[in-house]
């Protein structure tokens, strides 16, 4: 079985559910874990990363992902929430009732610190709900790899997934955190082949999770990187589905 553990779905011509499902079928990927997309126009991502542009209205369309989950049994969903919202804890509670399986945070969209009270509240609740907490990290003191790892240390009951293997081409701090802490995992989408392979050599396959970053990246291309790794078959199986199945408590 192969599970794409990180895709963005949105009601757009370039990232909708129907397109995604066709790709999964064509590539032999059994299931996908989706988060809301289109808060940022991924076709202009460099402008956002460099600060040249800011998102117009970064409100996550969780309803679109919820509908995808309900209409298609092979799609699981992570709710995306803004930690600045006053009722964010209630939003997370509601998302559990709606069938979501985890939490996605977006510091690039919502401009928060991993050290904020809102994030701490969400991280604590994720431990209570059995929700993994997924986020990418950015080149910003408040949302850096170090800050995210500190959050993971603060809430050992919660599992934390660092998107894209951390920041930049080879985030050794993220790798060391995954090696050292039981509740820190690394997701592979858009990461480079060499860094993924070297990471598995250093820490094994039990802390690495395959994801695609659809629609910015093609699931087939991202899968090809994992299939070409010079690693043991059991490690590849962990990366492709075993680890995310365990985190989401899937049968």
Layout of secondary structure:
Elements: E1 3-9, H1 17-27, E2 31-36, H2 45-49, H3 62-71, E3 75-80, H4 88-97, E4 102-105, H5 107-110, H6 117-129, E5 133-135, H7 145-154, E6 160-162, H8 172-180, E7 184-187, H9 193-203, E8 208-209, H10 219-227, H11 233-247
Parallel strand pairs: 1-2, 2-3, 3-4, 4-5, 5-6, 6-7, 7-8
InterPro entries: ACMSD, Amidohydro-rel, Metal_Hydrolase
Protein name: Amidohydrolase family protein
Pfam families: Amidohydro_2 (PF04909)
Description:
The protein is of the alpha/beta class. It contains 11 helices and 8 strands. The protein has an 8-stranded parallel sheet with strand order 1-2-3-4-5-6-7-8. This is Amidohydrolase family protein. Keywords: Lyase. It holds the Pfam family Amidohydro_2.
- Measured as a percent range, the helix fraction is 40-55%
CATH superfamily: Metal-dependent hydrolases
Order of helices and strands: EHEHHEHEHHEHEHEHEHH
- Per DSSP E runs of 2 or more residues, the count of β-strands stands at 8
Instruction: Write the CATH fold name.
Output: TIM Barrel
Distance between the termini: 12 Å
Strand percentage: 5-15%
Q: Which CATH first-tier class would you pick?
A: Alpha Beta
Per CATH, the architecture is: Alpha-Beta Barrel
Sketch the major β-sheet.
8 strands, parallel
Total domain units: 1
| Average pLDDT for all residues | 95
